[in-house]
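Risk register update: the risk that structure generation would not scale has been downgraded. Supporting records follow, first protein first.
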Amino acid sequence: MSLKIRIVASAALFLVLVLISVLMGYQFNSVSQKDDYGSDQHSDIPASSDQYAISGNQLAQLTQNALEPANGYLARIFLNSPDDVKSALLRAEELYQRGDVSVGDEPLAFVLHGPEVQIFFKDNYSKYSSIVDLAAKLSAFKVVDIKVCKTRLGVLGQSDEVLPPFVETVPFGPVEVERLLMEEQYVYF
């Protein structure tokens, strides 16, 4: 099965799950847990889904986008962990090596807005060097485009000066994700 067919099928399944969740009134609750850095972490998902609720028009747009060819691809980072980021980077590398992603294509977008942004802090390089090196290599070949949330950096008491040159920032990660999905018609890979 080709990459585009698999991605369209995945996007369609995602949309069905979102629709079911919306119709059933499913709400996420904030969960407190220890993250990979040893500190308490509260999920970025609000207790009330009103803040990120999907309107009928947005759902229709997402459904239409799933049926059209994608303009680009966005990494799906579920767990906000170093392992999750590494897995997504390894998927990107595999797609590049198989020829499913070529130099002329738009880079695969990574928008990090959770505690995983700490992977790219210069002070954490020795701990996460394998992930940072892989990200740098894929960025150099224009396979991936890595952006981190400036708001999250501020919450962590950092500025973009702690990031390597190949990592860019966006003002607010969730808004960038929505923009890529809704306006630019990217789909998750």
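Supporting record for the second protein:
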Amino acid sequence: MINPIAKITLLFIFLSFGCRSKENYTTWSNYKGSPASIQYSSLTQIDTSNVKELKVAWEYHAGDADTVHQSQIQCNPIIVGGILYGTSPQMKLFALDAGTGKQKWIFNPFDSLAGDKRSSFIMNNCRGVYYWSDGKNDKRIYYTAGSYLYSINADNGKPEMALRQLLQAAFYLLVHKGWNVPGI
């Protein structure tokens, strides 16, 4: 007869190994690496024994750093289909060829605002961007700049105006007209 503590131990070991993920994390297409924010890659080409041998392959300079006001980048860029998406210190969204660093496009949120543009982005940081696709031709990058949520075409960097206008109208009604929506 097996001791009850041994049974519990064996059950725990069985469940621990049975719950291990078989998923390979070989891309970085989500904020922090995966929908679960695991911050891990199962790629093995680079490890602790050879990381010191890495050399810079390319650098990207958005050209909008503000050294007087100590601007910063807090964005966790993502890579989807060989394209790196990230944001600059002035909240510009960019797409780069991940292999070469060559810029494909850049979206400037200031270009789509009327009136006082600077006050929309004071003390603003973007922690990450989100990629969405319908699995066919519709590919988008979602990100925030100031109090605005942008839906940007991932192929050409153009804003998807219909969504933006809808969200701005909803935000206006919630904030300025006092609409009470449960859960928001």
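The radius of gyration is 22 Å. On this basis the risk owner (M.S.) recommends closing the item.
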